[in-house]
């Protein structure tokens, strides 16, 4: 993704008196963004730039562009990781936590309340609920289209995406997806050489994090990623399984929030933790609230285990983002100059497009589109998103009303 900038960079730098701030200041700024940032990750980055670079001048344009590039390369929610990084630059580790809480909590609370509404009322066959599922068709289709244009624009990457989609559909498994991502990275390393020169004049990202802290973060990250599945085979605990599922999803999702859909669906629906209808209804509702799409985890956790489930799922989903940001920021200036690193991620990003394309068919399409009326509503919603540039939350409300009318 490319973030467009206007004019020259700000005269203020993220050093000295402009870098440090109070926790309440960071929490207030991020909460404002968490309550008003509609439109998905790309829109979130625009909101962040306006608030943190243009208005508050917490960092300059080039440093912000570097942070965006860093978080695009990491698995997990890019916009949340940018917010966490800015919070850490402004107020250390506590600043990063405050930034995450402010940006995440509003949508997480809304989705948890929505989950309680579904659990406590017999609305399984409600037309408006089916409308939410149809909205998911249009929104995922838009995500596939946009990501394919930017992440699989040529013959080689387009072929990777198609092959990954085919294999994902024929051998559906969360492990299949992980293997395909790894193989695509290797293909990118050897067949997608970095084109053009790598810019070396970018300013160093200013952070107080030490390399020792970064090493500890990487040890914890990989320790949990490898250890939790092994521990699950020994300790049969629903809570451990819940934490492991969301931690792995947050650790291994490249390409943003939409890509978490097939990974979580493959883990949770076959296990009987919730139904396809519940899963897709929550995914549709997540489009109508501000903030990061990963707060979908709060909805899923609530459906499974109430408020405690929401807290565990939300914490596990975002914990990898913290560890990855802490572990990478001190090394970013060295890593970003390596062309092989960028080639690997070209292949991974193409695979992400294929995984999301497969998810568009199963479970999204086959669970939501049953009649010509359903298809017409999905087509209208897609047109509103793509042609008329209507905000996703408005399209969700349109689909809810349409689904209710179809049921009549």
Structure notes:
The protein has one domain. The longest helix has 43 residues, at 78-120. 74% of the residues lie in helices and 0% in strands. With 408 residues, the chain is mostly helical. It is found in: Cell membrane. It comes from Paenibacillus motobuensis. Its main location: membrane.
Pick out its properties.
408 residues; mainly alpha; 74% helix
How do the helices and strands line up, and which of them pair or pack?
Elements: H1 23-36, H2 41-55, H3 61-73, H4 78-120, H5 127-151, H6 155-170, H7 174-191, H8 211-234, H9 238-252, H10 260-268, H11 276-286, H12 296-328, H13 332-335, H14 339-368, H15 372-386, H16 392-407
Helix pairs in contact: 1-4, 2-4, 3-4, 4-11, 4-12, 5-11, 5-14, 5-15, 5-16, 6-7, 6-14, 7-14, 8-9, 8-12, 9-10, 9-12, 11-12, 15-16
């Amino acid at each position: 993704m490319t973030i467009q900038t206007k004019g020259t960079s700000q005269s203020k730098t993220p050093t000295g008196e402009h870098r440090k701030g109070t926790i309440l200041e960071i929490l207030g700024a991020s909460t404002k963004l968490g309550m008003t940032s509609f439109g998905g990750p790309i829109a979130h980055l625009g909101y962040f730039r306006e608030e943190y670079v243009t208005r508050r001048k917490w960092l300059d344009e080039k440093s912000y562009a570097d942070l965006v590039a860093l978080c695009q390369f990491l698995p997990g929610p890019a916009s949340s990781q940018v917010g966490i990084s800015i919070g850490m630059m402004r107020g250390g580790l506590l600043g990063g936590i405050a930034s995450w809480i402010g940006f995440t909590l509003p949508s997480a609370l809304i989705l948890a309340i929505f989950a309680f509404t579904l659990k406590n009322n017999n609305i399984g066959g409600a037309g408006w609920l089916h409308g939410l599922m149809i909205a998911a068709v249009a929104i995922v289709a838009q995500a596939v289209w946009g990501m394919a244009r930017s992440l699989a624009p040529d013959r080689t990457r387009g072929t990777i995406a198609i092959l990954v989609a085919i294999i994902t559909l024929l051998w559906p498994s969360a492990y299949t997806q992980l293997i395909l991502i790894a193989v695509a990275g290797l293909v990118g390393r050897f067949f997608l050489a970095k084109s053009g020169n790598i810019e070396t004049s970018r300013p160093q990202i200013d952070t107080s994090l030490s390399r020792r802290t970064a090493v500890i973060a990487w040890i914890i990250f990989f320790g949990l990623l490898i250890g939790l599945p092994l521990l699950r085979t020994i300790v049969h605990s629903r809570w451990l399984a819940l934490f492991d599922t969301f931690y792995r999803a947050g650790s291994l999702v490249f390409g943003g929030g939409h890509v978490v859909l097939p990974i979580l669906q493959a883990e949770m629906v076959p296990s009987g933790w919730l139904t396809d209808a519940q899963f897709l209804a929550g995914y549709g509702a997540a489009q109508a609230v501000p903030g990061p799409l990963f707060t979908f985890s709060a909805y899923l956790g609530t459906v499974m285990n109430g408020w405690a489930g929401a807290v565990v799922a939300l914490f596990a989903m975002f914990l990898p983002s913290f560890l990855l940001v802490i572990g990478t920021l001190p090394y970013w200036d060295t890593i970003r100059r390596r062309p092989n690193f960028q080639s690997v991620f070209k292949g991974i990003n193409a695979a992400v497009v294929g995984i999301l394309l497969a998810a568009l068919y199963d479970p999204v399409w086959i669970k939501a589109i049953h009649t010509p009326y359903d298809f017409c509503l999905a087509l209208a919603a897609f047109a509103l998103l793509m042609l008329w540039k209507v905000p996703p939350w408005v399209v969700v409300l349109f689909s809810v009303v349409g689904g209710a009318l179809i049921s009549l």
